[in-house]
What does this fold into?
Amino acid sequence: MNRLFFIILLSLFAACQPSKKVSETEEIKALLLSQQQAWNDGNIDAFMDGYHRDSGMQFIGAKGVRFGWQATLNAYRKNYPTPRKMGRLVFDLDKIELLDGQGDIGHVLGRWKLIRATDTPAGHFSLITKRISGKHKIIIDHTW
It folds into this structure.
């Protein structure tokens, strides 16, 4: 009888624990919220912390594919040289999912909007994240 009670208690305890899947998707969400905040603070360098600092990182946009973290940083600095040009960024996250059993690869589908004095450009994005050195980083960003 004690053994059955222990098994039931252990099962209830395990069921109450947050699953790895939830914590991994929450980590990815936190990454994007941190990027949004950095952008809204006018800090492109901090915004770029969300990307994998690697020459293989990919940014796919209306002008084609850009390879590399540094090339992406340079493009952001060129296209958004001032806080006024940057505007206020709003992300709407439609779906965050894990693509592998370990929670190391994630996919995010969402929408972005820049609120500026003269216009409000908006679009969509699809991101692939990968756990690198213990943290999820964006390795592929397809924004349109």
In short: The CA atoms of residues 13 and 82 lie 51 Å apart. The chain has a mean pLDDT of 90. The domain at 16-143 is CATH 3.10.450.50 (Nuclear Transport Factor 2; Chain: A,).
